[in-house]
Request: fold
Amino acid sequence: MTTSHHAESKRVRAGWLVDGRGGPALKDVCLVLRAGQILAVEPYRDDHRPIVDLSQATVLPALMDAHVHLVFSGTEDVQARKAQLTFAPEQVRAAIRTHLQAHWQCGVAAVRDGGDRHGITLAFRQGNSDTAAALTVKAAGPAWHLQGRYGAMIGRALPTDRPPAQAIASSLAAGDHLKLIQSGLNSIDQFGHQGPPLFSQDQLQAMVAAAHAAGRPVMVHANGESAVRMALAAGCDSIEHGYFMGPENLRRMAEMGIVWVPTLIPMAALSQAEGLTVAQRDVARRTTEHQLAQVRQAQALGVVMALGTDAGSQGVDHGAAVRRELQLLVMAGLRMEAAIACATGHAARLLGMVERGELVTGRRADFIAVNGPPENLVEALGTIEAMCIAGRWVRP
Ligand SMILES: [Zn+2]
Reply:
């Protein structure tokens, strides 16, 4: 055994490398790791003597889910869904732990939470320090919505007895980001139907400005043309869902560099949900197809997309949903590597973790490995063979 004042470098041979930037997979490369970081990525040579041989595997960055609700499970059982709303805090914390376990099992090393009414996820995150061996949680606390409109399940109504920026002060002090709800849910009774937006342009603008002044990015739940247009005009950081936003908004997002999290899987799950009528399932199916077409357009326009599953929605299980969302992004027409970039490099930037998400020199050594070449990578992600976080093997 050698001792050294300096951290020793280690080598990992990867049969194939998908680096999280969206470019084509590289063949037979060597990752040089030191002090938990990637020192270099170079072509493999025999004299490299790899410490870890993953020559039969594809290596890619650890995954991230940019839109989850950790307090809810994806159960389709209506009674079980209702029961979750009345859980005691201890039950909620147990649920959060279970859901984080599920993410970890699926190779997900970071999630961004879209809010819960009592802010329990944020409190949970504050009580659990972010060690390298743990999954990173970015939490909003309660989302903010307009009294009488959608959002009570995951947030609070904006108090109107004081200016908006003051009303959300608690979120800005404690949350990792701000979550605003600017539209309702998509109708499953009437294809493409959108209600009026929630907040006024002034209210939105004031809240986004206050968040940015406090150094907090803003994620906005927005479906439909006008809700998305208003959120973009207010200068939000990401549009969540964005169903039926239309090409003009997509063009604006590409110009402004605002990230889109298209959350395909919740609607795709509804298109097969047993509790729905045939007509409702059909609206959900057409809505999914419309969203797939928007994703295709977004990719052509150069909109930066991050993968988010809205896990905790009906039929959307934490962890497992990430692979299903990747499949849908590929179905929309993204190359596999581009879909992976949504769940790695793009998501890392959106989550404010620029040191992660891409397997290039200088980044943290966070990666997973799955058996075989990358041709069927998304399917292969069902079995994570190895996982390394900050240079430490957390699996097998
Ligand atoms: Zn959500």
